[in-house]
Amino acid sequence: MLRLTSDHFPIFVPFGVIGFYRYLWYLIRIAASFTYRPIPLPENPTYIAEEDVTIIVPTIDAGEEFKEAAHSWLVGRPKEILIITEERMRGPLQELADAVDPTHIRVLTVPYANKRLQMSHGIRNTTTDIIVFADDDAIWPPTLLPYMLACFEDQKIGGVGTSQRVQPCGERMTVWEVLAAFRLSIRNIEIAASTHIDGGIPCLSGRTAAYRTVILKDPEFLDGFTHDYWLGKYHLNSGDDKFLTRWMVSHGWSTYVQCCKEAELLSTMKPDWRFLKQVLRWTRNTWRSDLRSLFMERNIWTAHPYVAYTMVDKLFNPFTLLAGPVLVAYVAYKSTIPVDSGGYHLPAWNVMLSYLVWLFATRTGKLLPHLWYRPQDIIYVPAFILFGYYFAIMKIYALLTLYETGWGTRTGIGDPTAATAAVTSRKTVAYPPLRLTAHSPLLMSWKE
Q1: What DSSP line would sit under 338-394, residue for residue?
Q2: For the chain, first and last CA: distance in Å?
Q3: What are phi and psi of 163, to 5 degrees?
C-alpha cells in the first residue's frame, strides 16, 4: 500500500493522521481501563442492603427468566423488591412473585404500560435511602449489592453502575448475542476508562443502576422524568437511563461504575434480528441525550471533559468509519486505470486484500478482552466488521428519525396519550413518605 503514496501522496496523509489519532485514543482507553480500580468494600459500611435498599423492576411480561433474576437479587438481602407493571399483568406477575418470595416482593400497578411512569410509581412507594433499578432479566452475582453500596460512602456520589456480560437465552449464543457480547465488552473498557480519567460516564445503564432516593424523590425530577419531550413535542418513554445520568451531571452529583467480577451482572439480549431494533432504539436515545448534554445543557464540558470528548467523537464516528471503504473503493478503481493515464501501480485485488487484512487485524485486537475468555467467538469477527458498517449507516438513519420514540421491540409501550392520562389519574394518590435515617445525605435539600 505504501507504493500508492508515490502516485498521489497528499490523499493519504489526512486519512493516516485520522487513523493514528483514533488508535492512539483507543490505546489511551485501554491503558486507563487497566489502571482503573473499583471502590473496595468498607470495613464499617454506612448502608446495609436489608435496611437501605429497595429494588425497583419495571416490567410488563416477565417470564421464567425473572425467577432466576429475582433469586439472584434476594441473595443480596434487599429490604424490598417492587415489581411495577400495568394493571392487566398484575395476576401473572403476582404469581411469579409469590413463587419466589412473597414476603420481600410487592407487585404494584399503573394504568398503562409506560416505563418511566412505572419507575416513578416505584420511586414514590420507596421508603429506603437507596433505589436500585433493574431489568427483569438482570442476573446479579452475590456480591453486587455490597459493591454498589460501597460507592455511596462518598456522599458526593449520587448514582452507581456496573459492568455487564451477556447471558445466552439458549444453550449456545446466537450470532446476535455474540454481537451484543462484543459491544458490552467494548463498553466495559470504555466506562472503566472514563470513570478513571475524569469520573464520568456517558450512561449509567438501566439494566442495573443504583441512586440515592433523596435525588429521585425531588418533585422537580419526577415531573421532568415523566414529562420529557424531544424538541418540545415528542414524548420520550425509553432513554430513562440517559435522563438519569444527565440529571446527575446537571445537578452536581458524581457517579461511579464498579467494573469488576464482584459487580458484573448477566443480562439476556434479543437472540434474533430483533436485536437490531434494540440497537436502533438505543442509538436514537444516545443521539438525543448526547446532543442535549453537549449543546443544550452543556454541564458535561466542565464536569467531565473526557466524556464530552467521547460524545463528540461518536457524533462523527459513522462518517469517518464509512470514509474508509469509500476511499478504498476509489483507490481500487484508480488501480484499474493504466499508470500513464493517471492510475495507480498496485492492482485492485492487492488494495482490497490489504484493507481486509487490516480490518480483521484491528477489529480482532479491539475484541481481545472479550476473546480472552471466549476465544471461540473469533469466528464471528467478520460478522462484527459487517455489523460495524451497518451500525454506521443505522446511526445516520437514527439521526434523521429522532422523532420516532416507539419502543421498537414491544407493542403498546409508551403511548404519549396514555402516559399523560396515567400521570393525571395518580395526582390524588397518597404515597408513603421517604424514610430518612441519620445517614441520609442532603436531608435539608429535599424539596418537599
Answers
A1: -GGGT--SS-HHHHHHHHHHHHHHHHHHHTHHHHHH-GGGGGGHHHHHHHHHHHHHH
A2: 67
A3: -85, 165
Q: Which pLDDT score is estimated for 348?
A: 82
| Cα gap 52→436, rounded to integer Å | 10
The per-residue pLDDT for 433 is 43
pLDDT value for 14? 63
Q: Indicate whether 438 belongs to any domain.
A: no
Q: What pLDDT does residue 11 have?
A: 55
Model pLDDT, residue 288: 97
Beta strands per DSSP E along 240-355 = 254-258, 264-267
Helix (H) or strand (E) holding 332: helix 305-335
Residues of the chain with pLDDT under 70: 1-16, 342, 408-448
Counting every residue, how long is the chain?
A: 448
Maximum Cα interatomic distance, the chain, rounded to a whole number of Å: 84
The CATH number that applies at residue 133 is: 3.90.550.10
Q: Which cell numbers in the block locate residue 377?
A: 467467538
pLDDT (0 to 100) of residue 413: 55
CA 99 to chain centre: 31
Task: Enumerate residues 6+ apart whose C-beta is below 8 A from 310.
Answer: 190, 194, 202
Q: What is the distance between the alpha carbons of residues 267 and 248, in angstroms, rounded to a whole number?
A: 25
The Cα–Cα gap between 318 and 311 comes to: 13
- 406 backbone dihedrals φ, ψ, rounded to 5°: -65, 160
Which residue type is seen at 389? Y
Angstrom distance (rounded) from CA 92 to CA 73: 20
Residue 437 belongs to a domain: no
Q: What is the CA radius of gyration of the chain?
A: 24
Give the C-alpha separation, 448 to 436, whole Å: 13
What is the domain count for the chain? Answer: 1
- Domain of 15 in residue numbering reads as 1-425
With contact defined as beta carbons under 8 Å apart, do 351 and 335 qualify?
Answer: yes
Angle at the Cα of 209 from the Cα atoms of 247 and 58, rounded to 5 degrees: 95
